[in-house]
Design goal:
heterodimer; A: mainly alpha; three-stranded antiparallel sheet; 15 helices; B: alpha+beta; Penicillin-binding protein 2a (Domain 2); Beta-lactamase; five-stranded antiparallel sheet
Chain lengths: 412, 497
């Protein structure tokens, strides 16, 4: 019984964080209501976001009492910040995001329940996951549309879907499955490196053909870290690094837009008129915001290309300030840290690898795009989990959170 | 559990630490980039936020150190905001580069300090005002002396060139003029081709023009000699015949003079073919003897000379808040002939006047550079209270001069004014030190050399460093020196006119 008491104590201790998030929402929407076209609509949007967050929190609590609060609170904060920024950037557009948010939150609860009834916690479906994952990205090859040099989204009945976002979760499940040797896998105490390698290389190859370099980098790094953790030999890991370097050199020579991205990173100002434009605009936005930011509606984020999606971090820095930007970086790290903690305490090898893969996914995505916007590394067109506009990205990120929370309660 | 073997757990921890380092790198890089480049990114001419903010915010006033208004904003009859500039033509024209125009054709104070002028740094509660009233930015006071600028502008007249004076104890830039200039109030007319433009008029020659330094570079060679040649101070030099170099290979032919040379050759001589006879190092510097310094350069060697030049701010990207300075260059020569000429500021040596002024400042201040600054203070435009006053900042990053070398260079510079080429700059009652320069820029006879003077006033209360360059005007002592004297007289308040 003392466990139960401890859980309740911990929850009470941490609940003030939830109040902070709710207060943040209330103040932000009140402030925005003064400036926006419709006073009532703004407040209703804010109320809807708050209700959804609280509802999700209560249902998670109902589904499993010992959920990881810090992980969820990080996600809630990022979702709140995202909705505020999207509402400020484009009111009508962000209203369409509300049902998607609702569906995504519902999906994460559903996934938690799947894990509970032991559907997702096994390597049983690895072949299904692998097939679906590959199918989704191959699909883009045929019916995909090009955006910003990369062919990475399809259009179904007025909805824009990025299949590679969903594919990522299935990809992680499949690779975790190949490395597992439990009663479902049929493998005898041996991770199936060859199958995993072939599968990963196939996925990355298709993405490279689609010129979706950002996704290709993510898929590669996630697989690499999962290989590493599953116990691959050190010499193999080093060989792969050599392969990556060669692949990077080839892509630098073969793809024009890889070269321009690197030039734009090295000095965005000399090529401001064309290649360096986006990077330079992002840097100017960050510099204009300063440490404390210009304040909501005080900046000019519309000048940055891709302000709602890839470059949303520059918008955060401009209007909320670099200090908040650093807090966001910190929050991503807490999120990843909790994910890895869940991985470490999970009982089965499959769960461990799956959770680690998801944490890695968040880490790689957020590092690539924040590093790109702040000119630490060349820009790769990657969405920032939870913050960027885009339904598919939000859905897949919240499903991933559902898996983590599910494993936290039932897989340990 | 058996599934989670120890290796996997260990490697998971490794991954966690790798992620931690990556995210720390993200945060540190963001802060580092902001504090190092932030001001530069913000004031970029591409930053349209400044232009659009200028349409909605009453930009603050810019005034000189004595309160003379250089620029202000007002509402016209249609309620549009107009930027106005000083009505005094001389002041407006002479400060054009230092102010910078609104389109960023030349980048100056109006852009560097746009953060204050447009009120970007004001507290949030001050930034939010009602719709009907315009928000007001803060006022900015520059370290520039407008009267001195106008005086320098007229002194330069139709000559192309630049003049800069800074306070070497505080880093305040008192004067920075560049000719040819443009009328900042007519920038729209220039851009619409309604008004004729002059070639290179947007270029701020003080910070952006890359000039051949000529003899003022001897200061660098002198410091390198002090560093690398033991007991050079007590050595005796003899300046008589021209130095002879092999025409093809450029190799120095020691012991050969023009009467007994047997191969096709090139020479290195002094300006006007003087010879100075027996000299000490101090006398060679004061009389600006090319032959002695060319020999010193060859004795030091190109690598070491490059190292000294680098420690004196050559090949350096200066990162200051208030000013962007193009970097000066010293290209490492491979042939004796080029090395000899590079030691007297010819070959491919390139400098900006502002850098030279900073070098003299650092020497005058015993080897320590105080960062040049253009911003005196920022005041609230409503109640006049001072919001921000930058403090003088010592900078040890770009200049590395030992104080005993600085002491010796100062002595040499005084000698140059006392009995050397810079005699004409002396002002009664003040100790002026300096170095002239005559930079050959063309082989053609009819194109005159650039005329240089760099120097400083050795005075606790008037610590001014100066650099003057007049393009294609003649020798340093005939043109730049008299102008420098007049400018210093004006700055010191002892002008007779």
């Amino acid at each position: 019984m003392s466990d139960e008491v401890n859980i309740i104590r911990r929850k009470i201790r941490r609940s003030h964080l939830l109040f902070v998030i709710i207060a943040f929402n209330i103040f932000a929407y009140l402030l925005m209501s003064l400036k926006s076209e419709s006073f009532i609509l703004t407040l209703l949007t804010g109320a809807a976001v708050i209700v959804m967050i609280l509802g999700h929190c209560m249902l998670t609590n109902k589904l499993n009492r010992d959920y990881d609060e810090l992980l969820l609170y990080c996600v809630y904060f990022l979702i709140s910040l995202s909705m505020i920024i999207q509402y400020r950037l484009n009111e009508s557009g962000s209203l369409r995001q509300l049902p998607i948010l609702f569906a995504s939150l519902a999906a994460s609860l559903l996934v938690m329940w799947f894990v509970k009834i032991n559907v997702l916690c096994t390597s049983r479906y690895k072949w299904v996951a692998a097939a679906l994952s590959l199918l989704l990205i191959v699909l883009v090859l045929f019916i995909g549309q090009t955006h910003g040099g990369a062919k990475n989204w399809i259009k179904i009945a007025d909805m824009e879907i990025q299949p590679s976002e969903i594919s990522r979760i299935l990809y992680i499940i499949a690779i975790a499955g190949f490395f597992t040797y439990d009663e479902y896998s049929g493998y005898k105490n041996q991770p199936q490196y060859l199958r995993a390698t072939l599968f990963a290389v196939a996925c990355v190859a298709v993405l490279v053909i689609e010129k979706d370099i950002g996704a290709a980098v993510i898929f590669t790094l996630v697989a690499y870290i999962m290989f590493f953790v599953s116990g691959a030999k050190k010499s193999t890991m080093i060989k792969w690094i050599i392969v990556f370097i060669i692949a990077a050199l080839i892509s630098y020579l073969a793809f024009k837009h890889v070269e321009t991205r690197i030039n734009a990173w090295y000095d965005p100002w000399i090529s401001f008129e064309n290649d360096g434009y986006q990077v330079a605009q992002g840097l100017m936005a960050i510099a204009s915001g300063g440490l404390s930011g210009l304040g909501l509606y005080q900046g000019k984020p519309n000048m940055i290309p891709e302000y709602g999606t890839d470059y949303v971090f520059a918008v955060v820095c401009e209007e909320f300030g670099i200090i908040v930007g650093i807090c966001v970086i910190l929050i991503y790290f807490v999120l990843i840290f909790r994910g890895i903690k869940i991985a470490l305490k999970s009982k089965s090898r499959f769960n461990m690898l799956m959770c680690l893969g998801i944490a890695t996914l968040f880490a790689v995505q957020s590092f690539l795009i924040i590093g790109g916007v702040t000119k630490l590394i060349p820009v790769t067109g990657v969405t920032l989990p939870f913050l960027s506009r885009g339904g598919t990205s939000l859905l897949s990120s919240l499903i991933a959170v559902g898996i983590l929370e599910g494993v936290n309660c039932y897989g340990t | 559990m058996e599934h989670n073997n120890e290796l996997s757990v260990k490697r998971t921890r490794v991954v966690l630490i790798a992620f931690l380092l990556a995210f720390v790198a993200l945060a540190v890089n963001l802060l580092y980039a902001y504090f190092t480049y932030g001001a530069r990114w913000f004031s970029s001419p591409y930053n349209k936020r400044i232009n659009t903010a200028g349409e909605n915010v009453l930009m603050g006033n810019v005034s000189d150190r004595n309160g003379e208004i250089l620029a202000y904003s007002e509402l016209n009859d249609d309620g549009k905001i107009i930027r106005r500039y000083s009505l005094n033509d001389d002041i407006r024209l002479s400060t054009a580069h230092i102010m910078g125009d609104k389109y960023g054709m030349s980048i100056g104070a109006e852009r560097f300090f746009a953060r204050y002028l447009l009120g970007f740094e004001q507290r949030l509660d001050k930034r939010v005002v009602g719709e009907e009233q315009k928000r007001k930015g803060s006022n900015v006071t520059l370290t520039i002396d407008a009267k001195l600028s106008a005086y320098a502008f007229n002194l330069l007249g139709n000559n192309r060139g630049a003049a800069v004076i800074m306070n070497y104890k505080t880093g305040e830039i008192l004067l920075s003029v560049s000719q040819p200039t443009y009328d900042i109030a007519l920038i729209d007319e220039y851009l619409n081709n309604k008004k004729k433009t002059t070639d290179g008029m947007y270029v701020n020659r003080v910070t952006m023009s890359e000039y051949t330094p000529g003899s003022i570079f001897k200061t660098v060679t002198l410091i390198a000699a002090l560093e690398y040649i033991p007991d050079v101070i007590n050595r005796k030099f003899y300046c008589n015949d021209n130095l002879i170099f092999d025409y093809e290979s450029g190799a120095y032919l020691d012991g050969v003079n023009e009467s007994n040379v047997e191969v096709k050759y090139k020479t290195l001589s002094d300006y006007g073919n003087n010879s100075h006879g027996s000299l000490t190092l101090e006398q060679a510097y004061a009389k600006s003897c090319n032959k002695v310094f060319a020999k010193l350069a060859m004795e030091i060697g190109s690598k070491k000379l490059y190292r000294t030049a680098k420690s004196l701010g050559f090949e350096t990207d200066f990162m200051f808040n208030d000013i962007i300075i193009y970097s000066s260059k010293y290209e490492v020569p491979t042939r004796d002939y080029d090395l000899a000429w590079s030691g007297v500021g010819q070959y491919k040596d390139i400098v900006t006047p502002m850098h030279m002024c900073m070098l003299i400042s650092a020497i005058a201040n015993n080897g320590v550079l105080v960062e040049p600054m253009l911003l005196k203070c920022v005041t609230d435009s409503n109640d006049g209270t001072v919001i921000y006053t930058p403090q003088p900042k010592v900078n040890n990053k770009y200049f590395d001069i030992k104080s005993e070398y600085a002491e010796y260079v100062k002595k040499c510079m005084f000698a140059a004014v006392d009995y050397g080429t810079a005699k004409g700059v002396s002002i009664d009652g003040y100790k002026i030190c300096g170095k002239t320069g005559t930079a050959e820029v063309s082989q053609q006879e009819n194109i005159k050399p650039h005329s240089w003077f760099t120097g400083y006033v050795d005075d606790e209360n008037n610590p001014y460093a100066i650099c003057v360059v007049i393009e294609n005007a003649g020798s340093g002592s005939s043109v730049a020196v008299p102008i420098a004297r007049k400018l210093l007289e004006m700055a010191l308040g002892v002008a007779t006119e």
